[in-house]
Amino acid sequence: MAPKRQKKLLGKSQNKKEMDTVVHLSGDEDEDEIKLVKRTEYKDRIPENLELDLMESRTTAENLSKNIMIFSDYDSDKSEDEESSVKSKQTLSMGKDNEESSPERILLKKDINNKVESDKHSIISLDEISNVKTNTSEYIEMINYIDNIEPVFNHFLEKFPPTSQLFKIFFHTYRLCMYVRSLSSFEIFRIYNNMSTIIEDKDKKTIKFVRNFMDIVCDHFPEIEEIITLLEDKEGNEDVLKDMYETLISADCQKIVNILENWNEDYQENVSKISDSEDDQLITDSEDDEYDKNLLQELRDEQSDKVTETHVERRLDQAIIDNKGYTPTSKKKKKTPGVKRRHQFQKASLRNRSNGPGVRREIPAQDGEARGIKINVVKSRKF
């Protein structure tokens, strides 16, 4: 078998590779060094961010070529930026001259100046801010008070039946609380915007009424305050709370209704003066706090209680007859002798005469009967 021809390897020969690696320099080395010194003058113009690129290059030829290329690009970019900035300045100056001379620009300037002047006038001073804070503090406190007391109203409205008197009182006051909260929030908005107030004298009275409602109710019904304290341990005090709810549901609220209907500032001032004077007197001489509290409560109850005359049904006796003029003109019974215990007999006769029996009714007669049977007749036999 004839040997196969071996394929020639592609690529350059060793002689060609050696020829490429050889660097051709001129015969005079001094001239080359002078040229290198002239070309390295560009290094003084290199900015800081470009020094790293130059340090990475390996040979002098690469340094020179990179240096030349970088500075050519740098100079071209700088010249283009300068030309564009000059052109933009010229266009802006031309545009400004045209805009300033235009009527639309003049109107805009006038509007801006007017707005600046109005803003200067509308800036609130520190004194005005302090006045706003003082005016709104009362209404903010009222809103916080209603927010704190709202769960108390909701609890008692759930527990009381709608037919009880306390439910009606609490429901009416709850609606007033909601009205006062909305009114105070509107008033705060108006104060901040320098608007006129919408609160009248009757609204001020309702605000004071809402603020003092719980004090009045707790003075007459201390069970309400005790319930609020016992609700912290609801499971352990279920029986006590049930008894308290029952007493409050069946309580007579006529006194509170009279006080709330006739409530005014004079009542509040009188109560505060009386309570303060009593507190001062008892605190100086007292030794036991519980005794003082009970004594204060009794004094307040005595002053708050008003005598209400109610009609009491009494038995008919001689005193009533004498006062009403029912005594007979002739007193023959008192003159007749021989009757023992005349006064007792007279009272008994008057009592029997006043309490006369009703009309007797008979069952209708049936067939064969002469008359009907009387209902009230009871036939009995003695053995």
UniProtKB/TrEMBL annotation:
It comes from Strongyloides stercoralis. Pfam families: Sas10 (PF09368). It comes from the Eukaryota. Residues 1-21, 78-105, 325-367 are annotated as: Disordered. Residues 1-10, 330-345 have a biased composition (Basic residues). Residues 346-355 have a biased composition (Polar residues). Coiled coil: none annotated. Residues 96-105 have a biased composition (Basic and acidic residues). InterPro entries: Sas10_C_dom (IPR018972). Residues 313-383 form the Sas10 C-terminal domain. This is Sas10 domain-containing protein.
